[in-house]
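Changelog-adjacent note: as of this version, every example in the card shows the full chain rather than a window. The one below runs 380 residues end to end.
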Amino acid sequence: MAKKSNLKSSLICLAVVLGIFVYLAVVMGTANMLNTMMHTAHDLLLNTCFYLMAICVLMGALGRILIEYGVVDLLEKLLRPFMKPLFNLPGVASLGAIMTFLSDNPAIISLAKDKRFAGYFRKYQFISLTNFGTAFGMGLIVIIFMMGQGFYWQPLVGLFGAVCGCIVSTRLMQHFILKKYPSFKDEMAAVINKEEMNRQDKEAEVKHEGGFIRCLNAILDGGKSGVDVGLSIIPGVLVISTFVMLLTFGPSAGGAYTGAAYEGTELLPWAAGKINFLFDWLFGFKDPHLVAFPITALGAVGAALSLVPNFLSQGWVDGNAIAVCTAIGMCWSGFLSTHTAMLDSLGYRQLTPKAILAHTIGGAAAGVSAHLLMLVISLF
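Full-length structure tokens:
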């Protein structure tokens, strides 16, 4: 039975892969298709991946400095009062939001592994941290990247949208959990005794060196973690973005395929154009090509960011699109590729479909919220 299932899966996979490549080869020509794929991937590596890595290194160093000198703790104390009314989470959850904002989605899991942190949460709240943390993943990098494209206040509107999307996603996930496991409402996620707490406190003690060495170590360690994040972005950008661009952009300016970078079949805009009234109404997207951003962000936000410079060069992007893309990019931030692993590490893999559904709705809510705020701002 298992062999039949594997054979079926193999045939379906082969049919899908061949179907995509045959479609691209028929429209573009086999040689042009292969040349465009290579040139696009090469250009993305040099001009987008390394640019993103530079941002990751700088922001990683900044983030580690903020952690080392207690700025993150201060921010956590300031944000703590908003956790319960907005997200129905204990105040310490604000630390998870800050950590994922400064780094990436999995940072929330490293915190969740700490029993002292987990001990503040009911089980349903603890599981919803997957959705809560993901909504802020790579937030600082997304905002800085958008500002680097010449938009300064619009990404902050996107941050507001991401917060709204996070509220929707987190509370919806909590609803799904309680509906399936009502007992989780009162069960604590972890119980820690005094001996274990004292042991963890001793392990957490760090001997700080002199001020200069302490600062230097924080900068170098943060920069090194930024390199790791930058490297992890590369596969998503090269694989996902290359194929999305092949389905988004059209032939060269002369109307023929030449094998140059960023040529494509315009399949996605054609499909989006059939229901563009919906994207215009929800997000204010005036061009159907923009739908490629949220589609790509589902898999990797770094890959989605790589689309923006080309959108700008084509004149498809305005301030509203930047705000909406920032909101969706932050809120979704490649959750399809991380939610399964995150829930698996928490021990609740069976809730992955619920988490994905809740976060899909939350990301859409983030884009809608950013668009509505942009409409309000445009009135003044």
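Structural remarks: The chain has a mean pLDDT of 84.
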